[in-house]
Amino acid sequence: MHTPGSAAATQLFEAPELHFSDLSADVLAGVVAAATDLALVVDGQGVIRDVSLNASQAAELAELRQWVGRRWVETVTIENRGKVNAMLNAAASGAPVGAMPDRQVTHALTGGLDLPVSYSIVPLGARGGLLALGRDLREVAAAQQRLVDAQQSMERDYLRLRHTEARYRLLFEAVDEAVLVLDATSLVVFEHNAAAVRLLADGSRRIVGRSALDLLAPAHHADVQARFAQARAAGRSDELLVQLASGGVNVRLAASAFKQDSTTLLLVRLSLPNGGVAGAPAPARAAEGPSLNDLVNTLPDAFVLTDMQGRILSANQAFADMLQLPPGELPQGQPLDRWLGRTSVDLNVLIGSLRQHGVLRLFPTTLRSGLGEPNPVEISAVAVVDGPQPCLGFAIRDVARRLQADARAPRQLPRSVEQLTGLVGRLPLKDIVGETTDLIERLCIEAALELTRDHRASAAEMLGLSRQSLYVKLRRYGILGDHGGDDSTTED
Hints:
With 492 residues, the protein is of the alpha+beta class. Helices cover 34% and strands 22% of the residues.
């Protein structure tokens, strides 16, 4: 008789003998078929004696009827046989139903297909054996794969977005015209380029957060507002000659409207009437040609100049882009180890090496963005100690691995101990161990294929893998194209 509460993990009926004592075998079999996708009656020796299939699975899984008379453990893949034996032992020991957890195993079907099933077992009492109630997990596995594919797609989209933003930022900073981005309603500046700083900044106040009208002489405010209204209505405005509030310099102003989400923004361009560069006289620019500062500021790689203690004196725009700093926030005056290195030890090692040797090449470390996201970088640096102000120069290159265009493209693996040890300092120990595991796994798979003359079914058996698991690993490591063995021979 059942004692209520005897199974801690499962809440059973309070009085099953009252409701089910007169159930016929046919009714019980119907209940099992309706409640499960498949069910197995297994005797005390682990041999399958009967199979029940849900109506929705009967046609698709008709071959499961051939399991009758076979040992249950023989129907699953090699790596799952231990789970089947554990269920058989639990049933033989008389463990209560609630104390036996569900087990997920994989059956090998004909044609190289796998059938993942979650089993709950019910001992059959004094007669011995058990009833295995199975739930088909193929839909769950497919949903998990779709989730993985969606995550990889999101990562690729995020990378494309970052690359697009980097190109936009580079173009934004490379133009000689001063460019402001304003809220179309309040006319407050929330983004600008370096040329705007040279032309408009007075050294005491930031440009971001100020009204665009504050940057212009009061006599022109009415005309400027009219041009902004024209841009909001027509998409762009006519040019207007205005005077800056600081310095009395005359500039040409033109505005264009664009949408970002549901907000209207204004792109305002300020250029000198004579075609000169903002913040610099045109003749001097033409005579001297491009300066080194201009070239450094437009480099795609980050460049940072610090004092001998690592405090930033100046940096180019690529460095600010890598840090993802908010508009108007500058890294000048901040210690470099605020962003560079996993800890301050990295910068101390850099500075110590530069003081001793004067130059450093391709030092691997990480650069943390303003949001705390680490990115792997390589640093080449030089110490200048004989100038009027001793300083350190750092060239920083982002070496983050880009995702392949195909989500399932094989990952390139290191093939030697030297390459693996070369990852020290670039990756955490956990990732290096993962790379080592991948290398060993690939070598073992290639060795098994060579020993079996590219017979994948035999190689899977040798490695203790299901055929589907082996195919997944072959695709992962790009071995499918290198080994074209015939798998037409059955294992049975």
